[in-house]
Structures are given as structure tokens and as C-alpha cells.
Amino acid sequence: MNPPTTVRTRGGRVAVVTAVAGTVFIAADAFWLSFTALADLARRSGVDAGQAWAWPLIVDGIIVVATVAVVALAGQRSAWYPWGLLAAGALVSVTANAIHAVVAADADVPGVLAACVAAVPPLVLLAITHLTVILTRPLPVSIEPAEESAPDEDMPDAPPAPLAVVPMRRAGRELAARLREQGWSNKAIARHLGVHPSTVGRWFVPPALTTAEEKETP
């Protein structure tokens, strides 16, 4: 008996929607924290204040786009490229956030601690974006298969392939005879050949009666 296929219930859909809403909220917060840090680092590095906002969009944006591409191309040979972009984007974002934290941190805060705190938003953005994409992917919904009926007591464990139609009476009788030798009942043979049980019964009457019956049949 095949195992039942899991079907997403109404409660499961509500849980997925709630999880997606939470991941989007967390991703937005992580993106905002990383955005402000990278924009400030760009201004400190000489980028014009009116253009500094574009730099964090490029760095963190590649993380979001590459994550979606990785999920979309999962299992394909071309998936190595978005994986490479994802790794490069994450490395640049984490490193830039850590450098900004060291540069802008107060003297009372150790540089290592500031760098670790600043590295959390881009890492969370990476993880939460991947989770959001996975949650929003459409899942194939299939109906749970019905339970298989118990095998007929008269049927053997491994019957031959059933015949939809028996075009020739002689072929049907020969097959019926072979099944009878294997221990099949008339009812099981009739079901297998698609004929009435009384027809099978007439096939196994004494030869004299069978010959008389064939003569009467036009």
C-alpha cells in the first residue's frame, strides 16, 4: 500500500502565511540596518551623499536576487553562478558592515564586538531571504490515494495481466483452462476475462454437452 501524500490543510496554509509575514518583517529590518551602515560607509569613503544610498542597494540587493535564483535553479548545472554571486554578495556585505562598525564605534566598545554586532544584519538578511523564498514556493498538492481493496480470496498472489476483451472464444477457453489448473475459481476467471460466471461454467462442462451446445449456437 502506497504511503499517503501530505496535503496542505487550511491550518498549514495559515501557518505558512504567518511564517512568510514574519520572515518579510525580519528581512526588512535586517535590510534597513545593513542599508544605513553601508550607506554611511559609502559617504565616509567619498561617495556623494546623494548617491551613497545606491551602494547598499547593490551589495544587499545582489543577496536577495541571488537567493531567489539559487532556489529557482535548484538541481540544475547552472546553479553554480547564482551560488557564486550569493557568496560574494554576502562576503562583501558582512565585511563592509564590520568595517563600518569598527570605524564608527565608540571608543568604549571593543572593535571586535562592534564588528560582530554589525555582521548580524547581513547574515540574517541572507538566511531569512532564503527561507522566505522557500516558504513562498508553490507546493504540488495531491489527493491522498484511496486505500487499496483487499485481494480476492479466490485470486492468486501474482495473476497474469488481465485481458480487457477476449476476441476469440477458443482463446478464452484456453486461458480459462490454464487459470483453472492454477487453482482459480470460476468466479475469479470470469472477472479476469470479463465474462459472466455462467459462461465460464459452460466451458468446463463435460465434452459431450459442450459439443451439443456449440452445434446449437449459430
Give the topology string: H per helix, E per strand. HHHHHHHH
Please identify the structural class as seen in this structure: mainly alpha
Overall radius of gyration: 36 Å
End-to-end Cα distance: 47 Å
Q: Which runs of at least 5 residues are low in confidence (pLDDT < 50)?
A: 1-7, 141-151, 161-168
Helix content: 55-70%
| Main sheet properties | none
Average of per-residue pLDDT values? 75
Strand content: under 5%
Number of strand segments: 0
Figure out the total of helices: 8
Give the overall shape, derived from the CA principal axes: rod-shaped
Walkthrough of the structure:
With 218 residues, the chain is mostly helical. 66% of the residues lie in helices and 0% in strands. The protein contains 8 helices and no strands. Helix 1 runs antiparallel to helix 2, helix 2 packs antiparallel against helix 3 and helix 5 packs across helix 6. The two termini are 47 Å apart.
The gist of it:
With 218 residues, the protein is mainly alpha-helical. The chain is 66% helix and 0% strand.
Q: Which key phrases capture this entry?
A:
218 residues, mainly alpha, 66% helix, rod-shaped, disordered N terminus
Helix-strand blueprint:
Blueprint: H1 10-44, H2 54-72, H3 80-104, H4 111-136, H5 169-181, H6 186-193, H7 197-203, H8 207-216
Helix pairs in contact: 1-2, 1-3, 1-4, 2-3, 2-4, 3-4, 5-6, 6-7
